[in-house]
Design goal:
single chain, alpha/beta, Carbamate kinase, Aminopeptidase, 14 helices
Amino acid sequence: MTPIPELKVQKLEVAGFIREVFSYISRFKGQLFIMKIEDSLMDHPLFPVLIRDITLLHKLGIKVLIVPGTRNSIDKQLSAWDIKSNFHDGIRLTSEAALPLVEQASLGASQRIMSLLTASGCHGMQGNWVSARSLGVIDGVDYMRTGKIDRIQKDILEQLLKEDYIPILPPIGWNKLGHAYNISSTELATELCKYLEVGKLFFIGSECGIKAEGLQSGALTEHLTLTESGLVSALDIDQAREILDLNKQLNFAQVDYLVNAISACKSGAKRVHLISGEMQGSVLQEVFSSRGDGTMVYANQYSTIRPANIDDIPDMLRMMQDYIAKGYLIARTSENILDKLSDYVVYVIDNAIHGCGALHAYENDSAEIAAIAVAANYRKAGIGEALVRHLIDTAKMRGYKNLFLLTTQAPDWFYSFGFEPGTVEDLPPSKRATYNTKRNSRVLVMTLG
């Protein structure tokens, strides 16, 4: 069979990406995304592009709320006035003398974002919607005019979002007497998840995600999905805790992200993303792709392997078609799949199918792994590996003693799972009788018993 030209493969990937984008637009319309944006990005040449991409999300019907990080702006402001600023456990100790400059820097960062929103055709609105109280003195350390969040005026924010505004919340809180406090922008972004129904919370800065290189893994994190750039793509909250427990070498930004991502998920956020604002299109890539371009922590089921159902068949055939055209898989019809539908499983990410496979039972306590296929634009995401491991585990659970598969192109890949070279004589009698000698597939076997 003639292999598919490379250009056609690229077109398949583009078509798959377009389908995915449309599915996410429909899914996210009306949801709230909170963007915590580090002010260190404001001098980066791509900062206006980042804000423009955020306005594109808003114009598609996604609600957006922005919390500016202000540490960089505050440092510059205090330095200009020769005021020293001390930190304790990562928290700024805000003096009376520093507070007016802290306010000025925070409001200035918010104003800059609002100007770029306006330039892109959206309306931002900043205001004092956060009530705060003093952190006081903790273990002998006086935090002075640094405070913690007491309450957020949810009703005002919901009204602004309903009226198509993009609220901007600078990290300044006020008490009942009108006294201001410097609060943590990260705490504010996370705390908002307790008050509002949040689809996604983004931490956008110079940190691109959690790098897999050098990362210690445990029972929960042994098989993580990685991005093409070697970042951990997605973690559930239990995996995130394990990463924190096993990896004391993580930098402050990574630890801060994971700790707050876990907290935000527990507070109701469905997804929490850590992405770099220094990479063009990172927000759009993270929103409109299951793989994304950073690290995501999630609270509910994000990816899963489940039994296939009749509605999955068109997607399964679509994924198999490229493999069939290349000669990797034998041709199948809807009827073929339907006849053995209970043998098939699908790999689902955010309710979209990106992979499939089958485990067919034979006599002599044997089973065959077959029909492994992954969507064209997800073949480097570890989905194929996850499907094979799942089917091997299923075979063990069902008590099969012998596992086999037929392959023309991928023996080395299957060797990595523990398969070994076999012969046609190793196949169960009924499979041996239908072996296609013209196709001349290699036989790989694995003993489970």
